[in-house]
Amino acid sequence: DAKTTQPNSMESNEEEPVHLPCNHSTISGTDYIHWYRQLPSQGPEYVIHGLTSNVNNRMASLAIAEDRKSSTLILHRATLRDAAVYYCILRVTTSGTYKYIFGTGTRLKVLA
Amino acid sequence: NAGVTQTPKFRVLKTGQSMTLLCAQDMNHEYMYWYRQDPGMGLRLIHYSVGEGTTAKGEVPDGYNVSRLKKQNFLLGLESAAPSQTSVYFCASSYGQGGSEAFFGQGTRLTVV
Predict the structure, then answer these.
(1) What is the pLDDT of residue A47?
(2) Cβ separation of B43 and A42 shorter than 8 Å?
C-alpha cells in the first residue's frame, strides 16, 4: 500500500495561516487523500479529503499537486483549538475494497 | 446521534487472558475497521470488514480475530493477550463509496500486564 510522509512537528502563531505538507509519492490513481486530526485522548476527526482537485470546506483547504505526489492542508487562521496531531491518510483501493492507511502525523503547536 | 461507540473504554488484562472489544455504529455503514495506536505512532490497521459476514486482514492482524455478525457491530477478539498488545484501539466506520470519510470511536485503552 502507498504511504505518506509528514514532518513530525510544526509550530504556528495564533491567527496566522498554517500549511501542513504531506508527501505520497507512491499514490495510485484511485487513492483518495484524506486529512484527519486527533486531539489528546480522542479518536481521529475528519478534516477534508480530495482526489485530484483542490478542496475547501469550513475547516480547511486542501491543495493537491498536479502529479498528486504531494498535498498541503491549509488552516487559514490557526486557533489554540487547532493544536492537534494532523494525519495525512490515503484511502486506498485494493481488489475493490477500501482501506485508510495512516502515516505518523504532524503535531501542530499553536502559540498564543 | 451516537456515531461510533466502543466498549469498554479502559481494560487491564493479565497475560494469557482473553477479551472482546465491541464497536457499534448507527450510521448504516458498510465498512468497519479496527486500528491500534502505540505511543508516538499513527494508527495501524488490524482487521477490517466490507460488509456483514465478511472480514479481512490489515497491516498487523496477528494475535487478533474479528467478527461481523451484524452490520452495525464489529468485534475484535484477543484470545491470549500479550504485553505487546498493550495499546489504544480505535474502531472506525465508513460508507466505502467514493472518497467517503471515516468516523472514529473514542478508543479503548488496553493494558496487558
Answers:
(1) 96
(2) no
The alpha carbon of residue B97 is apart from the nearest alpha carbon of chain A, in Å, by: 8
Quick one: CA dihedral B19, B25, B30, B36, positive or negative?
A: negative
pLDDT score of A1 = 66
Q: Does the distance separating the beta carbons of B4 and A97 come in below 8 Å?
A: no
Using 50, 70 and 90 to split pLDDT, how confident is the model at B98?
A: low
- pLDDT interval class at B1 (50, 70, 90): low
Query: Chain B residues with CB inside 8 Å of A97's CB?
Result: 48, 50, 56, 96
Contact between A102 and A37 (Cβ < 8 Å):
no
